[in-house]
Amino acid sequence: MVHRVKDKNCTLSTDPWTNVNGKNIISYILNCGKDDFLLETLYTRSASHSATVIAADIRHVIKFTKFANIVAVVTDNTSANQLVWQTLQTAYPHIFFHGCISHVIYLAINDLVARLLWLNSMEGNYRKSRMIFQENQQLWTELRRLQQFEGKKASVLLADTHWGTIEKCFTSLLESEAILHAFVSGTDFLKVKTEEQKVKRQMGFDVVRFQKVFEQNTRPISDIYKMLLQLPSIYDEIKMSISEFVIITTVLKERYDFIYDDAHGVSYLTNPRYEGQGPGNQGWSRGLHR
């Protein structure tokens, strides 16, 4: 790795996640050209990813990685991380600190789930039904046996630091609907009596699905800018109340404004794909995208 990054400018990116034991962890990854290197994985030693812990760990990793020319550090767009940028910018004036542009999609999903009350209720009921099986080994074993027999995915456990788990939850629910009905037919989340309820559940899946395409590094960050401009018209075609549409468009505008700055604008304007020339997606995802 040392020879691969020699004389090259590199980006240090953080990837927070939660393991199967509920421990909060941050992985530190060195992005150098087309190469990605896992440098270190550290426990945050706390119930959340606090600014103090993150800043101390980033200092540790930068010191440990003296062989690389780190010119940028990219983290999630949380208030804790924004405080980290301010704290470390003074200590490292030659390093550019910024939030991951794709993370705004994850934040928008959380906003939508929180503000659309029926969607928030759907998520809460999913958690309850998921815990029923998780706490009963016999039920869980039988559920997995039936899912595997029918080629269905396992029910996903929601995790606040895992991108895409809400979408995966709703996907696994829709796939295993008949199986789950057999187990918990009395659960409100699974009992669908009207066509309106079916539409809402499908809409819940549609609302959170757009995050999926940005879970990997293969998408250029300029596509996020374009998506946030197009989503209001896409949701305008989905059957919903005016109040729900206003909530969705408000969330999208807030998150668009949250990340709209010089760095984001330059990344969009310098992408030749939007001028009808140049390469495809490959090669445009580096920098402000994990």
Automatic annotation (TrEMBL):
Disordered as annotated region, ranges: 271-290
All residue ranges annotated as the DUF659 domain in the record: 5-114
Pfam families according to UniProt: DUF659
Protein name: DUF659 domain-containing protein
Superkingdom to which the source organism belongs: Eukaryota
